């Protein structure tokens, strides 16, 4: 089923300090509710690159850009970033607007 979406998506690419992957995953899981507990957050996902050693991607969806930016400037966000910073050697962020969404046959919804 196809549908029009208006979500604001954030994609973070993080390169980790070698050997810190398991610690990073534990720290991410321990603090994930900081993001998902935000009223404007629609969900988030942590993925590990299948092609690049020590590279992770974090995707989070938000109701709109303004509410994401509000969270991005908050003390909660800064503290969450400080928690994950020791594991990161570099990273980047890309933002986008979801235009359409289509569930796959295996989705089960």
Automatic annotation (TrEMBL):
<dbReference type="GO" id="GO:0004497">
    <property type="term" value="F:monooxygenase activity"/>
</dbReference>
<keyword id="KW-0560">Oxidoreductase</keyword>
<protein>
    <submittedName>
        <fullName>Antibiotic biosynthesis monooxygenase</fullName>
    </submittedName>
</protein>
<dbReference type="InterPro" id="IPR011008">
    <property type="entry name" value="Dimeric_a/b-barrel"/>
</dbReference>
<feature type="domain" description="ABM">
    <location>
        <begin position="8"/>
        <end position="96"/>
    </location>
</feature>
<dbReference type="InterPro" id="IPR007138">
    <property type="entry name" value="ABM_dom"/>
</dbReference>
<dbReference type="Pfam" id="PF03992">
    <property type="entry name" value="ABM"/>
</dbReference>
<keyword id="KW-0503">Monooxygenase</keyword>
